[in-house]
Design a protein that fits this description.
Structural class of chain A: alpha/beta
CATH class of the largest domain in chain A: Alpha Beta
Strand content of chain B: under 5%
CATH architecture of the largest domain in chain A: 2-Layer Sandwich
Strand order of the largest sheet of chain A: 6-5-15-14-13-7-8
Number of helices of chain B: 2
Radius of gyration of chain B: 30 Å
Oligomer: heterodimer
Strand content of chain A: 15-25%
Largest sheet of chain B: none
Largest interface: A-B, 56 and 38 residues
Chain lengths: ~1050, ~70
């Protein structure tokens, strides 16, 4: 009887209706054009440039005759192949340097409000890769895409190479440091009683703060203004009103059983993404499925966090306040918690009905919050108004969720950000001619300040405007002097953004151009440039500050020098600091919300930070521009995300422009219909549309900063939107590299591309994934490779429960493997060269879909279909399981790519280094960015993921030298190192004792397209959603 | 064997081809010799000058580490 039941269950499982997965609306509705496109290896436009009819009529004989002459001339012009210039080894090799062996340096990379501990890998003195510092308590060895791509910014040909100053003709001309120092000092000394203003971003370094203070002491009348386009001020202000302490505490995401994110992309741009992702993923361990956390996301636009939700609710952002109050009303009723005022007007069921929210999900949310008191967290996004944050703090208070606030460490600020009124006072002082000098201290207020603040116009009234910046920007163009500063990898520094430790920064390369550290520039002016500029001025100042002010409090056992070198080696210095504990909740803060009501009319417009471009600082970075957006997969531009219903209302489709008007400010921007976006919500990311930027960032996107106002933040509730004029092509990689399919085929369900279930299903039947496997496979033509794979066999396992789809791995792979940037026009025809891609599949309803992410790379199949079809044996299989690519044999038939079922091969249609932006990537300086361990491929050659064979080769060399076997766990691929959640595992399949073995052979493991019997060596662990039912 | 079909034009074109090849070889030899080889050497020097502009210099005061830690192989 039991056996029969078992058999029935298995049959049922194998026959149960598959979930319908789709990649876009066109895919969902079986658009014939898309189906046809998916059948072709390359887009229709790919060969447009080649037209045989246009070839000239030229006889073969004439051609050969000319060839003979030109060959002779070419031979005369050729130099001796041996004589490429002098290559000599070190005549005085630095200590500890072995040519060909990398060196690692701990340092820090700061941007926006974040500070990242990094480990810079250098080869022969130049940085070639950046990863996280494993000793850094926040990063713990991981970084994000922006930090990975900072390497390219170091070698950016558009970096300023020398000081420039504006002449009378309003054009900038080359100058020298001596001249500009002399002129600026004259101005600083004889300022006619006017003030000096320094505009800076977040100050991460206590020593930089000291430099600014010393400058202010030297030049009285100096005032420092600090701002960040996206900041935590609203959250902190609300916290202060509720609990009396300055900054919102850090959250123990790893201990939360239930997480409710309200318009908060905490896995993306809201807060420290690296730390948040790591801690969140700790609650998604397949080896401890009983303790999976549960994520609820309530948001307007689909965010990265939203794509990872177990339950997601669409809600326009300006309704969040009413939603939180409704939650409070229901929770207080269920728990009997008293509230300062009557919340009956915020009935949750009425709210859910009014906003068409799924009542079942709401019920689960309330039950989970009430049943997990003290183990849940409700977290509001930083772009929401203060009232929402106060209400959320109160909700957490009555739920007893204070346990999840960290008491061991908190955010630390070296300089409080300037308030809105302070910035307004600055502008009015500028207008009243009270400011003689403005110094933009590595900041770009002209681009980022709201237009109605009038900063740009006021700046024209200031006689001397100095910009200290790495490359030109809107603020430098508006000034008189633009002084180039060092990149982070060329700079000394320290950072303190958390209590409990300091982080140190050291230069690993001398300044490539004639640049200076920004602190050194100020120090030189403090010292009145009386002596010749000393490169070590800031280094000495930094050491002195530490020796006098920080080292004495550490009670170190070592002398200062030993301590200092040890600190530089480790990259961090731990200090014991006690935190001020926050007291009890101040009920009056909540009581003041009594009469507050959020009104919605028209459209809600919300501005947020772009995942890779940030606030615009990285607009000239090709790796970040070409990185597909983690949700929409759009590259090279920003856009307005709207829902399908809103698009219908406005009468627009993808790429049509809309005119968004907020008060007197308006912006025309193309739309992208984003599945999962709430109706009447327009979501736009900033950072694009810079008018003064290098060649890479030129002409990309639309400047959404024009919508900001000095009186409002990021959310606008009284906005009007209508169809604009014309269209603009947005390029999305979402429909690129599609798997082959027939019409009406449930590709993903039936062909085992996505396999997922629920935690409940897994706990009841741990083998449910293996029961889904197709038993019938295609016959194998070739016999098994004899005697192969008996030693080390390389494989990879990707845990889809931990993978958030952030795409940091994509940039890490690009940096490690010298992948070229191809540009928007080439991405449009599907020629992006990234070896990794993160496929996103939607399922469920069009309006409120569930998203499944899958990292796709070369599967290194044992029965690789690409290997059999290469006419020149350019792609072969190694004895340790790698599908190898021999670039110099490849003649470019592209048959291998045609045969690859996973569509992971990339062809160099051009020498992209020559093709992109008129040879931008062939500028001499960019030669330095290449990893010398990896071949730089040229035109006509196929390439793909190699499982970082250069790292495997390093391990082999080490094993030979140390006379031991190769150890699989010693090899980490670039993507594995970058993955903040440790979703990627790599190692030796044959080593049963390795940690990797547990993932490779996990019961949730499956292979993509297993039926084809190509025997891939990448195992995917099926995603488990922690829902209340067995069904997704 | 009849030779009436021999195309005399083809004979002339073949002559031109070999003439071109010989001219090419002689040109090559001339360009490789003095004084023409001087121009070629100057061009080579320019490449070296460009590379010198991007000279890399390690910072001698930076402290490296051999232990890359748990996560960085």
């Amino acid at each position: 009887m039991a056996e029969a039941k078992d058999k029935m269950n298995k049959e049922e499982n194998s026959q149960k209706p598959d979930v319908n997965y789709w990649k876009s609306f066109a895919d969902l509705h079986n658009d014939p054009a898309l189906i046809e496109a998916s059948r072709h290896e390359f887009n229709e436009d790919v060969t447009d440039e080649f037209d045989p009819a246009k070839l000239s009529k030229f006889s073969r004989r004439k051609f050969l005759a000319l060839i003979g002459t030109s060959a002779a001339l070419a031979g005369a012009g050729c130099s001796d192949y041996r004589d490429k210039g002098e290559i000599v080894p070190y005549t005085k090799m630095p200590e500890d340097t072995v040519v060909g062996k990398p060196k690692y340096y701990a340092s820090t990379f700061n941007y926006s409000s974040q500070s990242h501990g990094i480990l810079i890998k250098t080869r022969e003195g130049r940085p070639v890769k950046v990863d996280g510092n494993p000793d850094h308590p926040v990063n713990k060895g991981k970084t994000n895409a922006i930090v990975q791509a900072s390497l390219l910014s170091l070698y950016d040909p558009d970096r300023l190479q020398y000081p420039i100053k504006k002449t009378n003709s309003s054009k900038f001309t080359k100058s020298t440091w001596k001249d500009v120092d002399s002129e600026i000092l004259d101005v600083l000394k004889s300022n006619s009683g006017k003030n000096i203003s320094i505009i800076t971003g977040n100050i991460h370094s206590p020593t930089t703060k000291k430099v600014l203070d010393d400058f202010a002491s030297k030049y009285p009348g100096t005032k420092i203004y600090s701002y960040e386009l996206f900041n935590e001020e609203i959250r902190n202000s609300a916290w202060k009103k509720c609990y009396g302490t300055d900054s919102y505490p850090l959250i123990k995401w790893n201990e939360a059983k239930v997480i409710v994110a309200l318009e908060s992309d905490f896995l993306g741009t809201d807060g420290n993404k690296v730390e948040n992702s790591r801690l969140f993923a700790e609650g998604r361990d397949v080896h401890n499925a009983k303790n999976f956390n549960r994520l609820y996301v309530v948001e307007g636009n689909m965010s990265l966090t939203g794509t990872n939700a177990d339950y997601r609710l669409r809600l326009r952002p300006d309704a969040q306040y009413n939603f939180v109050m409704s939650l409070l009303s229901e929770v207080s009723r269920r728990t009997g918690a008293g509230v300062p005022f009557n919340l009956s007007s915020f009935a949750l069921d009425k709210f859910a009905k009014a906003y068409s929210l799924d009542t079942k999900k709401i019920k689960h949310l309330i039950n989970d919050l009430v049943n997990n008191k003290g183990k849940s967290i409700v977290y509001a996004g930083r772009t929401l108004p203060e009232g929402v944050h106060i209400a959320v703090n109160y909700l957490n208070e009555i739920l007893g969720n204070k346990n999840l606030y960290r008491t061991d460490s908190s955010a630390f600020s070296n300089l409080t950000l300037s308030s809105r009124s302070e910035i307004e006072n600055l502008v009015s002082d500028m207008n009243e001619d009270k400011i003689g000098v403005v110094i933009h201290f590595d900041s770009d207020p002209v681009f980022q300040f709201p237009e109605d603040l009038g900063y740009t116009d006021a700046l024209k009234k200031v006689s001397t405007v100095i910009s200290l910046t790495e490359s030109i920007n809107d603020s430098s163009a508006a000034g008189n002097y633009t002084l180039p500063i060092n990149h982070a990898f060329e700079s000394w520094g320290d950072a303190k953004t958390r209590t409990g430790f300091y982080s140190l920064q050291q230069p690993v390369i001398a300044p490539i151009y004639d640049t200076r550290e920004k602190e050194a520039v100020l120090l030189n002016w403090i010292g009145e440039a009386k002596s010749d500029f000393n490169d070590t001025i800031y280094h000495e100042y930094l050491m002195k500050n530490w020796w006098e002010n920080i080292y004495p409090s550490l009670n170190s056992k070592f002398g200062f020098k030993e301590f200092w070198y040890g600190a530089l080696h480790d990259g961090i210095v731990s200090v014991s600091e006690s935190l001020n504990s926050f007291g009890s909740f101040n009920n009056s803060a909540f009581s003041k919300l009594k009469n507050l009501r959020a009104n919605q009319s028209g459209y809600a417009v919300i501005l947020s930070e772009h995942y890779s471009i940030g606030d615009g600082k990285f607009a000239n970075n090709g790796w970040l521009q070409e990185l597909p957006h983690p949700v929409s997969k759009i590259t090279w531009d920003n856009y307005a995300s709207i829902s399908k219903n809103t698009a219908k209302e406005l009468g627009v489709k993808n790429n049509d422009k809309i005119l968004v008007t907020v008060g007197k400010r308006s912006l025309e921007i193309p739309v992208f219909i984003q599945p999962g976006c709430a109706d009447n919500t327009i979501a736009i990311e900033t950072g694009y549309g810079r008018t003064v930027v290098g060649r890479v960032g030129e002409g990309t996107g639309f400047n959404a900063n024009v919508l900001f106002s000095k009186d409002s933040d990021w959310l606008f509730t009284t906005s009007s939107v209508k169809k604009g004029n014309g269209t603009y092509q947005l390029v999305s990689a979402q429909e690129h590299h599609l798997f082959d399919r027939s019409p009406n085929e449930n590709l993903l369900g039936e062909r085992e591309i996505i396999r997922e279930g629920t935690v409940k299903e897994y706990l009841e039947n741990p083998h449910f994934v293996s029961e889904m496997h197709e038993e019938e496979k295609v016959d194998q033509i070739y016999p098994k490779h004899p005697d192969w794979f008996t030693g080390v066999k390389w494989g990879m396992a990707i845990d889809l429960n931990k993978c958030t789809g952030c795409s940091d791995c994509v940039v890490a792979c690009t940096a490690e493997n010298n992948n070229p940037v191809v540009g928007k026009d080439q991405v449009a025809v599907g020629r992006e060269m990234q070896w990794l891609r993160v496929d996103a599949y939607y399922s469920g309803s069009e309006d409120d879909p569930i998203v499944s992410k899958q990292v796709m790379l070369c599967q290194h199949c044992d029965n690789a279909p690409c290997e059999n079809v290469c006419p020149v044996a350019a792609t072969t299989h190694s004895k340790d399981g790698l599908n190898q690519m021999v670039y110099n044999r490849c003649v470019g038939t592209r048959y291998c790519s045609n045969n690859c079922p996973y569509k992971v091969r990339r062809f160099n249609f051009f020498n992209f280094r020559d093709h992109f932006r008129d040879g931008f990537q062939q500028e001499g300086i960019l030669d330095l960015v290449y990893n010398p361990e990896v071949t730089v491929r040229s035109r006509g050659v196929m390439e793909k993921c190699t499982f970082c064979i250069q790292r495997i080769a390093t391990e082999r060399e080490n094993a030979i030298r140390e006379n031991r076997e190769v150890i699989g766990s010693n090899v980490h691929t670039a993507c594995q190192d970058a993955c903040g959640t440790n979703a990627i595992h790599f190692g030796d399949i044959n080593n049963k004792n390795a940690e990797f073995y547990k993932y490779r052979n996990h019961e949730l493991g499956y292979y993509v397209l297993e039926k084809l019997n190509v025997k891939p060596n990448v195992t995917y662990l099926a995603k488990l959603r922690n829902t209340h039912s067995e069904k997704i | 064997m009849k030779f009436s079909n021999i195309n005399f034009e083809k004979k002339i074109e073949r002559k031109k081809f070999f003439t071109t090849v010989v001219v090419g070889i002689v040109t090559y030899a001339v360009l490789k010799s003095f004084p023409f080889n001087l121009f070629i050497k100057k061009k080579k020097n320019n490449k070296i000058e460009n590379h010198k502009k991007n000279m890399i210099k390690e910072n001698p005061l930076a402290v490296s580490r051999t232990n890359t830690g748990v996560n960085n192989g």
